[in-house]
Amino acid sequence: MRGRRAARQGRASVRRVVTAKLVGVVACAGLLGSVGACVLASSAAAEGATVTRSFTLPVISCPDTSQLCTPVHRLTSFVSRSSVRVAYSAGPAHCSNIALLLFVDGKYVTRTAFTSPKGTTSKTLPWPSDGKKHRLGYEAEGETGGCNPGVLNNWAGTIKVTYTR
To answer: What pLDDT does 130 receive?
Structure first.
């Protein structure tokens, strides 16, 4: 009798854990027949939390044909519950102004303002709110001046992406 009661309490405990509104992944497995065991693995950030991710870009070489450094580079994929803030900080070797063109799932959305060497520029862009992962992409646009004679040769820097999980 005592074993059955413990098993019922164990199953009830498992049901409470599974049905509780916790952030994370709950995995339950049967152990020794009717006695259950659960493991809770929490996610990196709770739903509704603001997340900032930083990406250091290597030196990116551009085709020697224009100010636009193609192709579009894919940065990351994520789900956001609101708009997304993208900040670009020019690398220390920059000698001309750079703007970023921003893409969602390969489609152009917006462009940041130009930033000077060692400067920072940012832009908020709308993000699909369908609960699915979408991919953020970027490409650089140069501006004549400094060491840029009318063709962007290469660039580097850091991109910070801030969104709501």
So the answer is: 93
